[in-house]
Amino acid sequence: MRWIFVVMTTSLLAGCANHVDAPGPREPLAAAWETERLAPQVYTPPAWPVPLEAIVHRPRDGGLRPAVLVVHGGGWARRSPRDMERVARTLASRGFVAVNVAYRLAPEFLYPAPLHDLRQALTWMAENAPVLRLDPNRMGALGYSAGAHLVSQLAVLESNGEPDWKPARAEQRLKAVVAGGLPADLTRWPKSPLVKTFLGAPLKEAPELWREASPVTHVTSSSPPFFLYHGGLDQLVEVEQAELMKQSLDEAGVHAELYTVPYHGHMSMFLLNRSSVRRAAEFLAETLD
User: Fold this and answer.
1) 154-195 tens-digit pLDDT
2) Strands, E, within 21-161: which ranges?
């Protein structure tokens, strides 16, 4: 009986969701694909500071499919790709090649080390596209919490053509971003030990670093489309962070959607709200088509 209560409660909460700037009804993506999970593979070259692995989930059959880089949260300092396995399986069942990756963690490795890891992951995906059965011209990214920050930051930096983040081929840049529980402006948390550990300095000593490490700082008209989702009762990363990112994207003329569920917090939105990932997959299918 307990599982029935959880399902009913989750469905009720999802029914209260607010989806801002959705482009109208989308064709629901049925979980129609049989999937397979490949053995973990090291995606970093031998000279990388530490070897990092990717876990690939993909449809069992078919040709080249759109790909999604999947990035876990954990305050930039803990957790692992295991947290995102359910999300990766869901994406694969809806027709994507989901590449669920590890990245270097603070405090041993500071910003921007994990961004270089994700850039390498995208390079590895493109170079191994035929084997992985993915289309390197149709790559997006999905992250939650710290993972949302990383995929958002990488996407806005690479879309600006900054040398450190520019992909080897322009068509391999991220075409779409899904960001859940996004920390968009790190300067809004001047006393946060997590951000201080991630950046290696407090705000008062490195204000430009804190600003530079915030995705809202780099939004331009070249930024890719975003699907933002957030719990309305999130007290760890306030929903105003997602609203701020959407405002920046709107002002730049970039398509951005914001999906909020009023009665979810940071962890319950991630663990219980399945509708957010389902709608994100619909957004990705439309954007990466």
Assistant:
1) 999 999 887 788 887 777 899 999 999 999 999 999 999 999
2) 35-37, 41-42, 53-59, 65-71, 97-101, 134-144
